[in-house]
Design a protein that fits this description.
elongated
């Protein structure tokens, strides 16, 4: 297991595009959280007397995970680049020639998906904690923390879906295009379903 991870990390060190995307994510994620905070304050603050602060506990867990979920597409592109590069540079075939089984190669790639999902979730957790403690008068950090677990499952699902497209199509650009199209279709279906069910819920 450790040997497989060392091979994967050696490959990742050479991907400059990966470093740039990670840097963009690290910088933008907290700013986007604050952006959603500003929007919610403008729209909802007049309706909530008492000085509601979306960046305080427990609401920060929902705000941070929701805003961070929009970066799942960006980070899924990272997964596609990592996996499809194996086919573009023929490193997958070389790994098999060097003695690794196909199963070991696939497992090593999915471990990277798992690690990436974990790192993204941990970063979102840290951002939430920092915002929460800076904006809460009486911190109740544990309340609402289940949203982090839900967000982790969501990121793992998105990254696994991207992994599937990368393995199926094998061409980086095409895989990214098909994944984005699938994301847009999924978003449209979700919005359509919400509009269809909302009148029913409101009429109950």
């Amino acid at each position: 297991m450790r040997h497989l991870l060392s091979i994967e990390f050696a490959k990742l060190k050479k991907l400059n595009s990966l470093k740039i995307i990670f840097l963009v994510y690290i910088v933008l994620a907290p700013l986007v959280v604050y952006g959603f905070y500003s929007i919610f304050r403008i729209i909802l603050d007049p309706m909530t007397p008492g000085g509601w602060n979306p960046l305080a506990f427990p609401d920060i867990w929902r705000i941070a995970t929701y805003s961070s979920s929009w970066f799942n597409v960006l980070m899924s592109i990272v997964v596609i680049i990592i996996v499809s590069n194996e086919y573009s540079f023929r490193t997958l075939k070389q790994n098999v020639i060097d003695g690794l089984s196909v199963r070991q190669v696939v497992v090593s790639k999915f471990m990277i998906v798992f690690i990436l999902s974990t790192l993204v979730t941990i970063y979102t957790f840290v951002v939430s904690i920092v915002y929460g403690f800076l904006n809460s008068k009486t911190p109740e950090a544990l309340e609402g923390m289940e949203y982090i677990g839900i967000y982790y499952l969501q990121t793992l699902g998105y990254f696994s879906f991207a992994f599937f497209f990368a393995v199926l199509i094998r061409k980086t650009a095409l895989a990214i295009i098909f994944f984005i199209v699938a994301f847009i279709v999924d978003f449209i279906i979700a919005v359509s379903y919400t509009h269809l069910t909302l009148p029913t819920i409101c009429s109950v």
